[in-house]
Amino acid sequence: MRRTSRGVMVAALLAAGSAASAQTPAPAAPQATPTTPAELASQQRADNPAQQAFLDGLKSLNWIKGPTTVQTAGNSVLAVPEGFVFLDAKNTDRFLELNQNFGSGSAVLIAPNDLHWTAYLSFSDEGYVKDDEKIDAPALLKTMKESTERSNQERKRRGWSTLHVVDWAVPPAYNPANQRLEWATLLESEGGRNVNFSTKVLGRRGHTSVILAGDPADLPAARQELETVLAGYTFKEGEKYADWVPGDKVAEYGLAALVLGGAAAIAAKKGFWAVLATFFAATWKFIAAGVVALMAGIRRFFGKRTDDAR
Q: How far is CA 217 from the centre of its chain?
C-alpha cells in the first residue's frame, strides 16, 4: 500500500514537472562563437541587396580552418595558423569576384578569420631569378601608374569603379637573407584607399607572389601578422633558392622587372603594353566600399563574440 502511495506521488511530481516545463520554455542554447567568415556571415543582417549578395557569397565558400597544413603550388607547403582561414584557387577566384577583383585561377587565399586583411599566394614557374640587380623605384612607380590606367578599361566595361596607383607605401627592397623582395603600393578608388603589400619569395624554379590587401592604417600590424604566416610557408627540400644548380632554368628578368610582373614586364619592353595592363588588372586587390562597411560590422561582431566567450 505504501509502495502504491509512493508511486502515485512520484507520478504526480513528474506530471507537475512536465506541466511546468510546458509553461516555462527552456532558455535558448547560446550560439557557438563563429570561427569562419561563413559562420560570421550567417549571423549578420545586410542593409541592402548588394551586401546580402556578399554575405551569401561568403557562406557559399569552402573555408578551411587552421590549424592545418596545405600543399601549395611550386612544391611548397603552407601552415595555416589557428585563427586563420584558407581558400583554394577555385574558391579564391569566387571571393575576388565578390570584391570586384579579377581572379587568376591560380592564387590561394589566407586571412585572419575576421578578414581584417587578406593575402593571396600564387607561384610562377618562370625560372630562377638572379638577385644582383639594382632597383629604380621612381621609374617602376611611373610604369606601374601608366599600366594601371590602361587596365581600367576592363573595369569600366564590367561596371566596376576604376583604380589608381597613388604612391609607394613602402618602396621596393630586397632581403638576401630570406630571398624576399617586398614593397607596398597605395591604391585609390571611389571607395577610398587600400594598400597592397607585395612579397616575392624566390625559389629554385620560380617565385611565389604574396599580395596582402588591407586598410593603409592597418599595414604595420598586418605586416607583422603576415610575417607570422610566411614563417610557416616554405619550398620543399630541393626546391629552395639555395638548391639551384647550373643547368636549371633561369628567368629572363631580374628583381626590377619582378616588381612589374616578370614576364609581363618583358612583354611590355617588346611593345606588348596590353600584356602589362592585363597583369595589373589581375594583380591589384581592392575591397569595394560597401564591402568595407559590411566587413567592419562583421569584425565588430566577431570581437564581441570572442569577448563574450572568454
A: 17
Distance CA(277)–CA(261), nearest Å, equals: 10
| Identity of residue 4 | T
Range ranked top by mean pLDDT from 46-50, 127-131, 218-222, 261-265: 127-131
- 240's torsion region: left (phi>0), alpha (psi -120 to 50) or beta? beta
Query: In this predicted model, what pLDDT tens digit does every residue of 183-206 receive, in sequence order?
Result: 998 988 876 888 889 999 999 999
φ, ψ (nearest 5 deg) of residue 9:
-65, -45
Helix (H) / strand (E) element for 52: namely: helix 49-60
Residue 146 has, within 13 A of its CA and on its CB side, a CA count of 13
Residue pair 131/143 in contact (Cβ under 8 Å)? The answer is no
Bridge-based pairing of strands 207-214 and 164-175 is unpaired
Helix, strand, coil in percent for the chain, rounding step 5: 45, 25, 30
The model's pTM is 0.76
C-alpha to C-alpha distances, 137 to 140, 256, 264, nearest whole angstrom: 5, 8, 18
Grid coordinates representing 151 are 587596365
User: What DSSP element (H or E) covers 303?
Assistant: helix 289-309
Question: Any alpha helices (H) in 77-174, and if so which ranges?
Answer: 89-98, 137-157
Angle between helices 137-157 and 273-283 (to 10 degrees): 80
